[in-house]
Amino acid sequence: MASVAHSFMKIFRGSSAGPGQVPSPPQTTKRLSRRSSGLAELGKSFASEEPLCVLDLGSTSAANIRYLTGRGHKIYSEDLLVASTDPSLPIKDDAGNPVLDSKRFLADNLAYGPGQFDVVLCWNLADYLDESLVKPVVGRLWSLLKPGGMLLAFFHTHEAGPDAPCYRYHIVGGDSLEMQHVDPRREVRKGPTGVAHTSIGTGVRLQRVFNNRHIENLFRDFSSIKFFLARDHIREVLVVR
Amino acid sequence: MDTPKTAEFAHIGKSVIVKGELTGSEDLYVDGQVEGSIDLQGNNLTVGPNGQIRANVTAKGVIVQGKLEGNIHATERVDFRKSAIAVGDVITQRVAIEEGAYFKGKVDIGKPEATRSDFKTERSSIASGAAMGAGSPIPGVPSKTPVTDTKKV
Asked: So what's the pLDDT on residue B105?
């Protein structure tokens, strides 16, 4: 799977290398609405009176915090895509290829106890996360989920194209999301460790396209997987540990 | 509880570094560095844009404009402004997170009588976790963004 995914990554990176070929990112923070069948399915859990422990891996969303805490659930927020831009992560593998240090990444992030979460909201993380981090992160998420816990992830189809914008997702209803473009024009800021982070300034790019087989392989340790194909070239995937 | 006039708040300026236990019975504005713990039962803490705090905080209300690593226990409200970088768990009744703020941690909309021991049982040391390099850049900051308010239902 890795080689195929890597090929797609190369195609996509190559297709937009020239100046002027990359469409300018939207200059507004306008939100788009979309219906989510995966969220609707997941929403049955949110309706539970039992307080759930939810891990949101997207950009910090006040809407998600409001929605979930308003129903008595606990929410943990962690933006892995931004965390993956830590400049201390790039290393070289045995073959000398540049990769990100997944061990260090997992030491710094997703540091929770095993079986802590009932629900993980992955959103479109896997499509934009560096290749070297995807499998280790999914492995860690498996261990963080309780048996029977659910994970919601979105994957682009080939039709979405290499320049598919990266969105952050805000929950606004049981089956309704608002999508907000992740603006790549980031300020150069110092993180809590004092290290300046600038790599996100080049923008967030689709790294690869997973087909159904790739997705099934990615989540092969989970007990079940359900696909929902949407009209906007997104496959929603709900997996159960 | 916005940027205060000095006369109304105790003020720690941006060149001041405090290490240790900080307690008080008046509102506090921190634009410098504090490492240790901050206990302002019944009063408000504002972390200014230059403020850097590595401490567990107990207060009535907390506004973060700068950096805060540590757990926050606020009996009333926590505001993360757009320039905020916050790593740690939050227990409070209301949370407002301005778009562009970076937050890593847990939000628990607790009852008013929730105690600080809640943190100890669930996530022992967020400060040490933050030191692991969890630091990250801030997402893009739009010029005018609304504050979304989270309120206990």
From this structure: 93
> What value of ipTM does the predicted structure carry?
0.70
Residue B148 located in a structural domain: no
Q: For residue B141, give the chain A residue with the closest CA.
A: A186
A62 to B105: CB separation less than 8 angstroms, yes or no: no
CA distances from A210 to A65, A140, A221, A229, B25 (A): 29, 19, 17, 13, 57
Is B132 in contact with A79 (Cβ distance < 8 A)? no
pLDDT for position B132: 33
Residue scoring higher pLDDT (B142 or A28): A28
Structurally, chain B folds into a number of domains equal to: 1
- Whether B136 sits inside 8 A of A191 (CB atoms) is yes
> Would the pTM of this model clear 0.95, i.e. be above it?
no
Q: What is the count of structural domains for chain A?
A: 1
CATH classification of the domain holding A64: 3.40.50.150
